[in-house]
Amino acid sequence: MLPIEIEQRVLSSINSPENLLKLKGKNINQFSFVIFRDVYNFIQEYYKQYSAFPSKELLETSFNNFIKIEDISLDEFEYSLLELCKLDLQRKASKILERGISLLQTEPYAAVDYIVNKLSAVKKPFKLRFNYTDRNALQRLELYENKRQKRTSGIQIGIKTGMSFFDEKHIGWNPGNLIGIVGRLGVGKSFLLIYLACVAYNDNKKVLFISPEMTVEQVEARWDVVLAHLQGYQFSNEALLYGNKIDRGKYAEFLELVKERKDWITYDSYEDRPFSVSIIQSLVQEHQPDLVAIDGFPLLIDELGSGQSWEATKNIAYGLKNIAQQSKTVLLVSTQATRGAVEKGGTPSPPNLDQVAFGDAFAQAVDLLVSIGEDSENPKIRYIKIPKNRHGRIYSKRIKMVFDVDIGKIGEFFGQEEEEKEEKGEESTKLARPYALAP
């Protein structure tokens, strides 16, 4: 197809937020269009203002040289979009090479650095992932046998969760899962997120931690105490933040151990821009992590520019779900609960599905939701529930969790049955196996 036909077909297919997001996910923007850039800008601005897409009549009236093609199939759209990506890549690479060649005459070293750095920054789009469900059916038998063998051998399926009531059954996070963590302001969602990510890291998984809320330094001070506790050390988060006294020799010993790896990447900003779905997708593509932890869903921006807050939440939530599925990566994302997330009498409680802030799109998109609430008497205790689990058991009763965040002691759980005994006034005799990994 000619460039004019490619642009025309792609623009004619922008009739839903999902299709518009596909363009963003493949790094297609206004500069990717040479012939119909004004049409693309018009569609973008129209959607931002009205949360809808312009009709065929409006487009053709507004732009005399543009004819909207109707009834384009999904396959045709995907093909045209890939062709546009190729054209965009060709233009970008050509400009870089032209500039680099002109520099070669006077500054050859600088020219090579310029070409290498600029070309490496040109992102390739995700490839579309599909499978022949019928032809490749026997692969599922092999997959089942592999899972069965792991279960009978006591080997974890998926990534360790850090929650003993899952891990003792050898059930973990599965690649492609979007996991939500929800709680009221100040309840400790960030520490819980770091703990869950540290468990995966301690199980030799690669982690990408995205922190729109805290600085890298704040994340790393928490990371040190949580991972150290999993590995048999104990330090104070407050001491690390403010320079109070700790066992410096032990701290140096711990840091010497972890510096041998390069499997935890922390971002607190991205080129001075807020984090969006396409930026997160780009980082996942660059680092290829096993698990992505995003601390602060409300701080992500909707790059589609919807004028409605509920529509923006939906775009972001399902954009993250799309990243998890396409990259076969686990995404852990924390978000806020509404002010109504309390029990009768004002006692703090882990939120329910209908108490997730900013609409219900996030709760709908996630595969599993972990809700966290405080203990009104003991600041070193938290309660969690699992009000949604698309692929397994729901835990609607509160489960008690040790939560001594200053020393990173998180994730020792009372079993659900024991918690029910406590609620009935019976003596609780058993603490579920403390969850900690060997150094």
What does this protein look like?
This protein is an alpha/beta fold and 439 residues long. It has two domains: 3-121; 156-423, P-loop containing nucleotide triphosphate hydrolases (Rossmann fold). It has helices at 3-12, 17-25, 37-50, 56-62, 74-104, 108-121, 138-152, 164-167, 189-202, 216-230, 237-242, 248-258, 277-287, 309-327, 361-365, 416-423, and strands at residues 178-183, 207-210, 264-267, 291-295, 330-336, 368-374, 381-389, 395-404, 409-413. A nine-stranded mixed beta sheet has the order 3-2-4-5-1-6-7-8-9, with helices on both faces. Helix 1 crosses helix 5 (74-104), helix 5 (74-104) packs antiparallel against helix 6 and helix 13 (277-287) runs parallel beside helix 14.
Using the CA coordinates, give the radius of gyration.
25 Å
Order of secondary-structure elements: HHHHHHHHEHEHHHEHEHEHEEEEH
Number of domains: 2
**For this structure, what is the CATH homologous superfamily of the largest domain?**
P-loop containing nucleotide triphosphate hydrolases
The name of the CATH topology of the largest domain is: Rossmann fold
